[in-house]
Write a structure and sequence with these properties.
Rossmann fold, 37% helix
């Protein structure tokens, strides 16, 4: 479905039972909501899955090309609009890489809407794209050597209807105080990053700044973990969710 605001059209996709626990997804850099296809197929019977394209990516469009319309604060408000429209008071957050930056902003601005947050490949420091690429290649080579099947990327997961808006959409992360926002996150947090992802250094620092954080290092996994090893990411998240349930009041 599409949600219309005065400044944007937001593409949203919802699957799963209406009364099931809700998971709200934040996409990686230059990805659209198709990024989560593998995981959503596995989760759709037991969870309400809410995916969206931030304005300027995928099938979402910004009508006004101004920096104000491309900000993590604005994306957080778009997320609240989606949750309110669907009647979801609180949700579980799941993000990857650039999306974890946006998710950190959302969790800090609207902690009252968050049950838990799973931040994969998280970093609040400058990205080292070359090291990310090299680490992903090294991890993939190790996976192949160990007989781990190579997962195909979801069809069309990097397609964007307004490709000229994508750089502005991505640049928003550089204008938000991510490090300063960590102290405002009060939900249980899973931080999961591959041992071949240079973001791991920042992930470890994040884990020290969040009161209720669980750090998981994914063996032989590079940057883009959800795309490279969706099976391992799913198992890691399900374990985290099980622990969340065991500590939550019935």
């Amino acid at each position: 479905m599409f949600l219309e605001t005065e400044t944007a059209r937001i593409n949203v996709e919802v699957t799963g039972p209406n009364l099931a626990p809700s998971i709200f997804f934040w996409n990686g850099a230059f990805c659209n909501l198709r990024q989560w296809d593998y995981l959503c197929e596995k989760l759709k019977d037991d969870f309400r899955l809410i995916r969206f394209d931030i304005r300027g990516t995928g099938k979402s469009h910004a009508y006004v090309d101004e920096a104000l319309e491309f900000s993590l604060e604005q994306y957080a408000e778009d997320a609240v609009l989606i949750l309110d429209t669907l009647g979801v008071e609180k949700c579980h957050i799941w993000s990857m890489a650039w999306g974890s930056r946006a998710a950190i902003a959302f969790c800090s601005i609207h902690p009252d809407r968050v049950l838990s947050a799973a931040l994969f490949d998280a970093s609040v420091d400058a990205a080292d794209v070359e090291r990310q690429k090299n680490g992903a290649r090294e991890a993939l080579a190790k996976q192949i050597a160990q007989g781990v099947p190579k997962f195909s990327k979801p069809l069309g997961y990097t397609d964007h209807e307004q490709s000229d808006q994508v750089p502005s959409a991505m640049a928003a992360a550089g204008r938000f105080d991510l490090k300063g926002s960590l102290g405002f996150i009060n939900a249980p947090v899973l931080l999961a990053t591959g041992d071949h992802d240079p973001n791991l250094d920042s992930t470890k620092k994040i884990s020290e700044r969040i009161t209720d954080a669980r750090l998981e290092i994914l063996a032989n996994v590079g940057h883009g973990s959800v795309l490279q090893r969706p099976d391992l990411c799913l198992a890691t998240w399900l374990s985290f969710f099980e622990s969340y349930q065991s500590r939550s009041p019935r």
